[in-house]
Every structure is written in C-alpha cells, then in structure tokens.
C-alpha cells in the first residue's frame, strides 16, 4: 500500500513515461514543437517540455524560456485532447468491388491504450463534456469509445494560469477534484523541483508505487493548497457574473452580433481548437478505377458556409448568424442539449483566433447592452 | 461491372502558363489509371491528337483575353457535358487580370516591339464570365489531389467534395500551429478558399491566397491584423492582387488596404 498523496521529483516524472511505455501505453503529453507547446506522442520522458512557458493574449501566443525547469507552467496550446479522442480525420470504412461483388470493410478501431500526461483541470472537464456528447445517449460513437475507454489520465493542476484562462468562471478551477488516475501539482523553489502526487485510482496507485517517491508532509500539502488557491485568484479572464445561459437566449436580436461580424473572419479556428466542439462531416473517396472506395469523417465547423447547407441553400449565410450560433451553443443551448455548458474556460478560442475575438469580452458587451435595455 | 462506354475527356488551354495542365501530366500513376478509364480526345499539351467533340468532361485552363477565345469557349461549352475550370486564370482571370485595373493600350505600346502584332481584349476574364461552369478547381497551380478527386468523383457518378471552407480549417485539421498567432507571420488562410491542404502554413510560411477568396471574405478585418503582423501598403496590395486580383472577394480588398492600422 502506498500513500494516497506523495511527492516525486523531476527525474521520477521522466521515469514515469518509460514506465507507461513498459505497460504498453501510448503516452501523449506536452512537448515543444516549432514555436508552440503541443500535445504529441512522447518517445521518452525527455520529450516532455521543460523550462518553457507561454505568453498568451487574444490572437497571440509566444513560447518563452523560463528561469526554471518547470514542466507544466504553460496554459492551453494549439490542440486539445480532442485530437486524440476524436481525431481531425478518421477513415470510417473501405469498399472494394474488384472481384465483382461489393465488400464493405468497417475501419478497425485502434486498440492501443493511451495515457494522457498533463491533462489540465479545464481539459478534464472538456473530456467529460465530450464523453456526454459522443459516448452518452442512445448512439455512442464507437470510434470515440474505442479511443476513450481505458485512457489513463494524469492531471497537471494549474499553478500558473494564463492571461486567457477563465475556468473559474465556468464552474471549474485550477485543481481537478476527481476523475484522474494521478494528479500532479508542480512546485519549483529553493527546496527543489518536485510534484505533489494525488492518487485517484488503483492503476494510479500502482504507478506511484513503482516510482521513487516519498510521503507528502503537511507542509507539502499546504504549499500545493496555497498555490492552487492563489491560481484561482489569478485567472487572466473572467466571464461577466450573470446567467450566461439566459443572457445568450435574451441576446438573440442584439445589435452586438453585427459588430462582432465586422471583426470575425468566419475562419473556424475557434471551433477547431475548442476542446468540446465536436462537429464532423463525411467525405467519400473513390479511386480512378472506381473499385476502391473510402468514407472519411473530418472535423467540420459551424463557421463553414457548407455547414448549414440544406436543400436549396445555406441557412446561416451571414457571419453574424454563424458567430451567434457558435457562442450561443457554447454558453446556452449546450445546456438544453447536453445538460452542461459547452465552454470550460480554457481560453483557446481567444488565443488562436487570428483577430483575437474574445468570448469573455463579447459576453461582457452583450451583458452591458442587455442591462442598458432593461434600464430604458 | 456492366460495360459502359468509355467517357471522353478534353483539356483546353486559354491564356495561361500551362502549369495546371502540367499538374495533370504530373499525376504519373494516376494519369496511367486515368487513361485506362477515359479516352483523352483533346489534350494538345500532351499529344497532337485533337479529336472533335462532344466530350463528357472538359478541363479548361486559362482566362479569356482575345475575341477568338470568347468564341472558342462557347464552342467548348457546347461540346462538353461537364466543364471544369482549373486554376486561378480560369477561375478568376489570373495574374494577367491585373490589366483590368490598368490601361492596356499603354502596356501594349511600352512592352512590345511591334504592338500591332498583339491582339488582345482590354480585360482578362474568368471562364465563368462567359459560359456556365460546373466545377471550379482553384489554385496557382491547382492541387493534384483535388484534380484526381474530381475526376474520380465524375467517373463514379457522384458530386466531388470541394468545400468552400477557409484554408485555416485544413491547417488545423493537419495539426499545424498557426503561423500568424504563434510566429506573427502574416497569413491569408482565413479568407482563402480551402483545397491546397494548407501547404504553405505546413512549411511555416503564410498563405498568400493562391486559391482565391472564400465566399464573402472579411478582408477588411484580416487586413487590420496583417498590418499588426508588419505588412505595409505595398505588400498588402501585392498579396491581394497577384493570382486572383480580379476575384471579387480580393479585388474589393483594394479599397481596404489604405485603412489606418488599429
Ligand atoms: S471568432 Fe475568430 S477564430 Fe472564430 S471564426 Fe471568427 S475570426 Fe475565426
Ligand atoms: S469556447 Fe473557447 S474558452 Fe470555452 S472551451 Fe471552447 S475554446 Fe475553451
Ligand atoms: S497559419 Fe494561416 S491558414 Fe493556418 S490557421 Fe493560421 S491563419 Fe489559418
């Protein structure tokens, strides 16, 4: 029996990656690639980013060298875990008519088990949202469940939220309360570089037992509590403190949509980077002989004109109708459909919008306009 | 499969550099497979064979810049069941459409030793300005995969998949890190029609819009950001006014490039 809470050092974290590989996991975690900290398959523990942070603002992201070796001192990068659970492109089936008869081969789902290393609390909430959307209900998506089942989750609590983070506004926070196998809280100070480890499952407990660790002291716990309480006080962004669900419904005819549309490019970047946006479309592929065919699924976006194509034409032709659809779905109609908010406050849509459109600012503008209306 | 008569294909060139036709020749193995499926009856870039129509599919490269071409394209339309324009010249008038914004007589007298030999209209116009076009393949040059995909779809009797999305959607699906947000590199991806697979951003360069505008592009807003990324008037003018200068979505950017930066 190990301790439920322990402390490991940086080298044990690196070792953890090897341990996971030895157990047959594909390990996905943050690594530095080009000018961003991205999520990617890690070949070994040294691939884990270390000593880099990020500077984020609306429409702007820069990696910055840190004075320390911190591994998790950066906020949401250009992708989310969605890329691994609900890939951007996925073959659904192949067909063949070369011997005269039509055969249809469904795409075998991957059997590799994944370990997610460094899942942010907001992203853990986002995975829960995807679970309800894609694995809940009457028709679970087998491609999703095949990837999702058996994922080992190692959370990295946030001690340094970014300038674009607002998980606290969305009911979350920089500490994941549950839903993980292990949860790490990083600390670099005069006493060294270490990670407080909380155990959340039997699998997590076994992993910890196999790593060099020591029992956590009261002081270790207090430091982590303080760091995370402090992080909650330092969100870079906040949503207006109103009922967002009602705000969006009441703002259907707001003049603000036209103003956003003057800036919005309808490029779809916000939906692609959002950890909960799940929409897809299908494409059929045949070769020139016509004997081989494939059906693919790919991410789609409510900002694409084709997205709302019905018989005779598109329904949402104006940019303002498309931006309104997106924001209203994220913050309001998602509740009607899936029983929760579709936004977890990760800030990615703010950072990766080429023109820096900020969902928290747009919500504030809608709120200001709505209260003015009430006032008159 | 039941015997069917072999579909016929024709490839036409109007005012263009031949680069898109070369893309077809560059299809190598696919081209071999294609010749097994269709009868290529007219393709002067590849063979001197020029059999008369009608044709099931015509691929049309180039823009209309002479009175003779105006007549020929109508003929081609009549001879063709399906007409596909290929490349920025055919779909938007090409780089030669810069003349639409200038004085052709002046060009003629300054550039050519014997101006009287030059037979040209005052404008370079896309094929769709003259005849009905069934499908458009954008790009300078076109994307080989898209060409094969459209021909495959035709042979299978289904609609080709040519979404009018932004290059950004392809860029994100490829898992690229945005060059504009992460590097501050100016990129036309948000207003540019998909189809290239986000080729330039994949190599950490900004998109320069060779696939032309998406429908109703918000160039005014993007230009503000391109200025933040360091583009000046001259660069802005060039980037919107090269391959697709006369495409309405980019041509209108002309009046927007002089906006003050934010
Ligand atoms: S909000 Fe930003 S990222 Fe989203 S579609 Fe508009 S311009 Fe693109
Ligand atoms: S809407 Fe924006 S902030 Fe909210 S979860 Fe999606 S990307 Fe994150
Ligand atoms: S690099 Fe260009 S094409 Fe890719 S997402 Fe950024 S703006 Fe769009």
TrEMBL record, chain A:
Chain coiled-coil ranges: none
Keyword Iron-sulfur among UniProt keywords: yes
4Fe-4S ferredoxin-type domain span: 253-284, 334-362
Top-level taxon of origin: Bacteria
InterPro entries documented for this protein: 4Fe4S_Fe-S-bd (IPR017896), 4Fe4S_Fe_S_CS (IPR017900), Helical_ferredxn (IPR009051)
Keywords: Iron, Iron-sulfur, Metal-binding
Gene Ontology molecular function: iron-sulfur cluster binding; metal ion binding
Database matches in PANTHER family: ANAEROBIC SULFITE REDUCTASE SUBUNIT A
Protein name: 4Fe-4S dicluster containing protein
UniProtKB/TrEMBL annotation, chain B:
Keywords on record: Oxidoreductase
Transmembrane segment boundaries: none
NADH:ubiquinone oxidoreductase-like 20kDa subunit domain mapped to chain residues: 17-153
Domain of life of the organism encoding this protein: Bacteria
Key word Oxidoreductase present: yes
SUPFAM superfamilies hit by this protein: HydA/Nqo6-like (SSF56770)
Molecular function terms from GO: iron-sulfur cluster binding; oxidoreductase activity
Protein name: Coenzyme F420-reducing hydrogenase, gamma subunit
Organism annotation: Streptoalloteichus hindustanus
């Amino acid at each position: 029996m190990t301790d439920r809470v322990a402390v490991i050092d940086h080298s044990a974290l690196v070792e953890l990656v090897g341990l996971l590989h030895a157990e047959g996991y594909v390990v996905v975690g943050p690594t530095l690639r080009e000018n961003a900290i991205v999520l990617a398959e890690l070949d070994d523990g040294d691939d884990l980013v270390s000593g880099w942070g990020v500077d984020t603002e609306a429409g702007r992201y820069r990696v910055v060298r840190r004075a320390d070796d911190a591994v998790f001192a950066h906020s949401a990068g250009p992708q989310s875990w969605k890329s691994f659970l609900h890939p951007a492109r996925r073959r659904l089936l192949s067909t063949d008519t070369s011997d005269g008869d039509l055969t249809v081969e469904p795409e075998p789902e991957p059997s590799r088990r994944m370990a997610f290393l460094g899942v942010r609390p907001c992203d853990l909430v986002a995975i829960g949202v995807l679970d309800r959307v894609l694995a809940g209900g009457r028709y679970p998506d087998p491609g999703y469940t095949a990837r999702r089942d058996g994922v080992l989750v190692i959370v990295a609590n946030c001690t340094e939220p970014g300038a674009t983070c607002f998980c606290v506004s969305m009911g979350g926070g920089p500490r994941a309360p549950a839903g993980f196998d292990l949860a790490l809280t990083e600390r670099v100070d005069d006493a060294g570089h270490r990670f407080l480890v909380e155990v959340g499952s039997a699998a997590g407990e076994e992993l910890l037992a196999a790593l060099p660790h020591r029992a956590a002291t009261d002081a270790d716990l207090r430091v982590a509590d303080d760091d995370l309480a402090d992080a909650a006080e330092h969100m870079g962004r906040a949503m207006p403190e109103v009922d967002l669900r009602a705000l969006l419904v009441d703002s259907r005819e707001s003049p603000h949509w036209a103003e956003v549309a003057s800036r919005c490019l309808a490029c779809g970047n916000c939906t692609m980077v959002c950890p909960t946006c799940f929409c897809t479309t299908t494409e059929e592929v045949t070769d020139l002989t016509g004997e081989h065919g494939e059906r693919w699924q790919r991410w789609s976006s409510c900002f694409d004109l084709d997205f709302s194509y019905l018989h005779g034409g598109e329904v949402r032709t104006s940019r303002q109708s498309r931006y309104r659809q997106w924001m209203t779905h994220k913050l309001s109609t998602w509740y009607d459909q899936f029983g929760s908010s579709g936004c977890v406050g990760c800030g990615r849509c703010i950072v990766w919008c080429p023109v820096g459109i900020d969902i928290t600012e747009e919500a504030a503008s809608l709120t200001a306009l709505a209260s003015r209306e009430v006032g008159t | 499969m039941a015997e069917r008569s072999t579909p016929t294909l024709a490839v036409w060139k109007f005012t263009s550099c031949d680069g898109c036709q070369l893309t077809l020749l560059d299809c190598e193995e696919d081209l071999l497979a294609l010749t097994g499926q269709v009868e290529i009856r007219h393709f002067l870039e590849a063979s001197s064979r020029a059999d008369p129509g009608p044709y099931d599919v015509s691929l049309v490269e180039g823009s209309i810049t002479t009175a003779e071409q105006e007549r020929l394209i109508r003929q081609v339309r009549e001879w063709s069941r399906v007409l596909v324009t290929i490349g920025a010249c055919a779909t938007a008038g090409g780089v030669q459409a810069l003349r639409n914004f200038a004085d052709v007589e002046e060009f003629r007298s300054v550039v050519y030793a014997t101006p009287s030999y030059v037979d040209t209209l005052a404008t370079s116009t896309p094929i769709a300005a003259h005849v009905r076009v069934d499908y458009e393949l954008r790009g300078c040059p076109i994307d080989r995969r898209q060409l094969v995909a459209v021909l495959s779809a035709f042979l299978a009797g289904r609609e080709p998949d040519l979404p009018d999305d932004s290059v950004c959607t392809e860029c994100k699906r490829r898992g690229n890190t945005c060059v504009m947000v992460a590097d501050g590199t100016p990129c036309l991806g948000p207003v540019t029609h998909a189809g290239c697979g986000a080729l330039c951003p994949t190599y950490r360069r900004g998109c320069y819009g060779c696939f032309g505008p998406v429908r109703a592009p918000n160039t005014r807003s993007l230009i503000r950001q391109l200025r933040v990324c360091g583009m000046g008037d001259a660069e802005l003018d060039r980037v919107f006014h090269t391959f697709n200068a006369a495409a309405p979505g980019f041509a209108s950017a002309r009046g927007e490039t002089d906006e003050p930066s934010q």
